[in-house]
Amino acid sequence: MTKPTSGILFSRTDERLGRFEVRAVDPFSDVELLHGWVTHPKAAYWLMQGASLPDIEREYLGIAAAGNHDAFIGLHEGRPAFLIERYNPAEVELKGLYDPEPGDIGMHFLVAQVPESKRLHGFTRAVITTVMELLFDDPSVRRVVVEPDVRNTAVHALNEAVGFRIVEKIEKPEKDAYLSVCTREMFLASQGVAR
Asked: Please, which residues have CB within 8 angstroms of residue 182's CB and are 6 or more apart in sequence?
């Protein structure tokens, strides 16, 4: 990890793809950027396809005001490239649907769509690695908990690549999901780091 600069909350350098940084979402100045990302046809699992600009602004103002949920913009080489949401799964998304443990944190991530000609091999893997390093940078976090749609095979493969294992299939109001968990040790093992 490198020392973050002003406004940057977390930074890491990928040996192949360069600098990844994370900053807080600004619901006002980031609204157009976020709207373009979450309403893109390839972001169908984000479940915001019909959202308007005011809808997105309200959503991220609500997240910013919540004490158990926050959102971040991920940068690649200084350019906005991905979205992260971090939440307390015992209070948001999974409340009443699983048995929480001390040190649990939940997350969602979304990689911005870029033209085929500008895609970098291994980019999404580098993004989820950045997300996991950000989450585990907090020493109180012991386990990351996610609930991706059962149909989202691409994210299941990415999750597995960074150490997640599926615990069970759960029914949420908006989707059937695979409750999946990854401990700090599971993540480090997936990265080839001995503990």
From this structure: 132, 143, 144, 146, 159, 162, 163, 164, 165
The confidence score (pLDDT) of residue 129 equals 97
Per DSSP (E only), the strands in the chain are: 10-14, 18-24, 69-76, 79-87, 104-111, 143-146, 165-171, 176-183
Strand-pair partners of 166: 180
Number of other CB atoms surrounding residue 115 within 10 Å:
6
Contact, 57 vs 70, CB < 8 A?
no
How far apart CA 16 and CA 153 sit, in angstroms, is 25
Residue 2 has pLDDT above 50, yes or no: no
Name the residue with tokens 């971040």: 72
Task: Specify the 3-state DSSP secondary structure of 171.
Answer: strand
pLDDT of residue 94 exceeding 80, the answer is yes
